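re: that chain from earlier
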Amino acid sequence: MGVVAGKVIDREVLEERARNLAARNLNGIARVFVTLLPPAAPTEAWLDVDFHTDRHLAAIVAAITGGTPAHAVFPLSGGSRLPAGAAAGQVRVTSVSAGPGSQRLRLRIVPIGDYSTYELAVQFAGFDPLMSEIGFKFRPACFNLNCAADDTLPAPLPLPDIDYLAKDFDSFKHVLICAMQDRVPGWTPTSEADLDQVLIDLLAADADELSDFQDRVMNEATLAGARKRVSLARHARLMDYHIHQGNQASGWLAVTVAPAFANATLAAGFGAWTSERWQDPRSEAFVTHDALACERMLNALTLYSWGGTITALDIGSVRADLTVPASLGPPTQANADLLRDLLNTGAPRHLLVQQQLNPQTGNALGRDPTARQLLQLRGDAESVFDPMAGAAGEWCVRVHWRDEDRLTRRYCFSTQCDLSLPLRDVSVFHGNLVRIAHGRPHRTVFRPPGAPLAIANPLSFEFQDEATYESTHWGVCARLPHTPVAYRNTPPGGETPPRSSLSVQVSGFGALWEEQSDLIESAGDAEHFLVETDEYRRSQLRFGNGDNGGRLPDDAVVTCRYQVGDGVAGNIGADTLTGFDRAANPRIAGIWNPFDFVDGRAPEPVAEIIRRVPEAYRSRQLRAVTLEDYARRAEELPEVAHAHASYAWTGSWRAVRVAIDPRGTTTLAEPLRRQIAAHLDAVRLVGEDVEVRAATYVPLDILVRVCAHPDYWPEDLRRALELELSDGWTADGRPGLFHPDLWTFGQSLHVSQIIGRALSVPGVGRVLLVSLRRLHGLHGASLQTITVAPGDEALPVVERIDVRPTEILQVANDPNRLETGRLNFEILGGRR
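^ sequence. v structure.
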């Protein structure tokens, strides 16, 4: 087995495929040899390309001799410092000639590329697509031992999440249990009589009593003393703070079409539940908001293995070749185009890849339930032909998904458990996916006071009943008879107004009325309403009085559709949402939720509301006045690590220059620059221009001489020092000394920092010399050298290298970009 370009290759199958090329009148690249000429000062490269057969090689030479550009037949791609391409000055093939053997061609390449990997492809009829490209390097090894490593280390795992919305005994107990499970691996709650469970119950009970005591001593006079949740919400809105009412859990629902039907349609409002019958008291109901057109061919899409060559998709893969489903017919181009067009139209915007069989046993039992991932398609699927499959070849469909959704694990698609035939379809793709939200649907019709009401119908999945509203001096109020009303998912923090799941339609009005957080700014004819929820989760609708918000017409009938459910109760595990009305949906064979639903939240506790509201305005300054305000507002964006602002005179007025240090990188992308400029333009002072520019990075040239312990190899010690002083991550998950997020504007580098990080590497006995300077510095403060001899008792006076307030130190140690800083190590002693 081997990994090539994210694909797991079976070498034996690949060699067998190569041996069969001649029988199919095909050819493919076997290997390539690189020669740089002249050897003393090379200016060009010659590639001796060996092929598996001699098919079509003479035709290639004849075509190029006849006028076809060599770089069109043999295109190059890749390159870091010197990119490959067809344009003048780029690395490309300039001539092709026959080699000394019948299966070899000689390619001349000008100019010579850099130290990165390049891809050579052949675009000529009669070549196997799987063997029509090969990677190579112009220089097989780097010019010194300080090359940037090819391997990348992942960032450390995030800290465990804590639910700060816990308020009652059950939620506090849940938080403590989750905290124990996060911090004590393998711990699970067992008997109620165990000491740890008793302590958890005691802590949760004490927290519950304290919360209840705080609730009972409140009153409605001020924010600090208010007891009713409605009063708290009104006090908070005066400070531009919106209390969080909790929100319903939501997630993805996968649908399987029955084999007897080619397609099926799920209407908006499709109901699903967690047991066989929705009437079960322990069942949790969910409803879809959008319609879904399901296709049987999307029930299970399998990976096209290219004759058994590709057995898995590796970590980081962003594309896959899909087999034409058997329901469409044979794998012809027409059927492949049908699947391609369906994937490109956006009907399935996402694909689910999941493991359906245990790769070790071949059974569904024992499969990894966490081996699932949602992939958002890019909409550029294409049909691909395999000339080696079957008698006349087969077609498949190649799909791509976003780079952000690159595979986080290896997915096995075919394996061999014993001496029997290979086991296929270990993992599959699924395309019938739709969003679904927690809460049983309700339909309540409000009629004028004194009007007769129909009898409620609680037996249907959508609960239907009627009630009367009340007219007051402040407008019409309609109390919903069922609680708690589910709220949509809105971020906590007070900036976003909560939005309920209510849709309100008034007789005589065609459009739905719009929900608002208050009616202060609503016009006298605005079709607005608001929802207020008290501490008992009871909700009421309030309409305008004709001055603030439109008044309901006389004898109006109000129809409200909404969902009822507790947000936290909708947090369910994967594969538990399986029940639905099979009689009403005969085309649906089954449903399930592939992932856990974890975004359901409880309402914001009263204590947190009282604590946050008085200080919320401090964290949301609406105008940038000082330079620190501009820098702070720029740093509000998650993509910005640090920012520095300074004034500049344009000749007519003052401008604010904001230098940006992007998070995790040193390159300020143009989309991010425009986003920052738009973000700052909304808060700038009148008469001031805002200019967003990249930070000025100062590359350093650093030499470190160390004495190694006799038990350590110098080569291993050099690699450990490179990681410790790198701009990436160390092997144990710590950021290197020059990681971009550790350095900001005007931050000086002390020699003691280098010495300390070097001495922290096991095997380093002493640091004998540290030399630092600006990479292009010549004299003065730009060139500073500190020597530490074994007998020295104190360091020299100069112990740091300073930068300007608009500069950031940088040491990338990339041989392809030496202008970004470099590191050199001299290791004395050690194991030889």
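The first helix runs from residue 11 to 19.
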